[in-house]
Amino acid sequence: MTVAASTAVTESAASLVQSVDWLAIAPPTIAAVVGLVVLVADLFLPGDRKALLGWVSVVGLAAAALALLPLLDDDRSTFCLTGGGADACSYTADRFTLVIQLLVLGGALLAALLSMSTLKDAKRADRELPEGEFWFLLLSSAAGAALLPASRDLATLVVALEVASLPAFALVGIKRGDKKSSEAALKFFLSSVTATAVTLLGVSFVYAATGTLHLTEIADKLQHVDGQLDTLAQTGVVLTLVGFAFKVAAVPFHFWVPDTYVGAPLPVAAYLSVVGKAVGFTGLILVTVVAFPSYADVWGPALAVLAALTMTVGNVAALRQQSTRAYSAVRLLAWSSVGQAGYLLVPIASAGYADDGAAAQKAVGSTVAYALMYAAVNLGAFAVAALVGRSRRLNRVSDYCGLYARSPLAAVVLAFFLLCLAGLPPGIIGLFAKVTVFSAVVDAGLGWLAVIMAANVVIALYYYLQWTALLFRAPEGEPQKHRVPAPLTVAISLTAVLAVALSGAPQLVLRFADTGLF
Cα–Cα distance between 81 and 412 in angstroms, integer? Predict the structure, then answer.
């Protein structure tokens, strides 16, 4: 072998060397390892000791969230390819990653607290759910959700997306023998598989046009795509966006949401409404503003139209819910989450009209800030819904009539959460989040979208206030008070304290949501 050939082989080998920073990957790794521990422990624990699995899962998720603290000082990257004059990494723990990981791990932790009461109630009602499988699936999905915001190549992004989604299918359908649960799982599965297939097709087209999977390299090479491959690249970009539109439940890819939320156990519905949505929006942010900025003239207008359709359809459908219909409270929250998805899409669309990286970063920060507010108050609303559902299994909106007489604190807290979602005082954090989104869309010059958003905020006010007023009406008959389980009390208290604290200092949310993604 010649010296030149030997040097070429050495350089090629060096370019494949990947460094591993174990501290950087600690949060998703801890969640995954605890999931495996729970699965194995389930084989040896007797039936009356299964509750320990829930506490182990809660502690594991808390440990995964605490593992974020050592990462605050500096950005860290791992699984890096060296050589060629530049480094390209598949995993980056920057500020954007840490904020989203805190959101998803915190959301999973609160969903776990809700689940402990649900699993215990199911056992008492002879509708026992497989606890070991439940906790393993929840932790696995949380690990995938924590991995996704750190993903900086399309392969890792798709793998993280599926690791977060596949266990969620099983969680939705975990109520064995329940027709609604099986139907919900099937709808969720079919919609998600379709989204994955479309996404993979788009990713393959992008890879064929650019020859790389790393997001920053794709951004650079898409600007210099050969003319013969330009159509292929455009098609890849569009298909990738369509795939993520399914994941975020954007209209017209939202049809699975109401039935899935109703058929799933309520803590799983809460998990999907916050963590599942965060996963989809995080992936959408990464592929648009990081990988496809040169195609902003394509995805910017497309996302603006999707945002307008999503918020309008979601809010109008929520407005039409009948309060006496079975599971109408859960359906209203489901349609409300579709409407909220529209608001979350607005700043991402605005980033497509930004003049520079700073403006785009500000727009993305608005989405993250809104997601943080939405996560806290929506999980709190689902927690109170889980409390009411313990005594009113059909969980209708009408079942909340006179809740103040039965459970004053729960009624006050739910009223506060609904006012936050509506954007009315004293829910200052909700008002602040909506103003932040309005600011992003106005700065982008999208006046028509701001008008549509304002109209939707007014529509949403009606059903949020209607539900709030119902809480304080005189109850029919003698109100019955029920003991609230400790995990459910903790979940409601944590979300209430967080929402009140953020309403007292809303500017902290925007400062915390300064992503540093660019």
Answer: 54
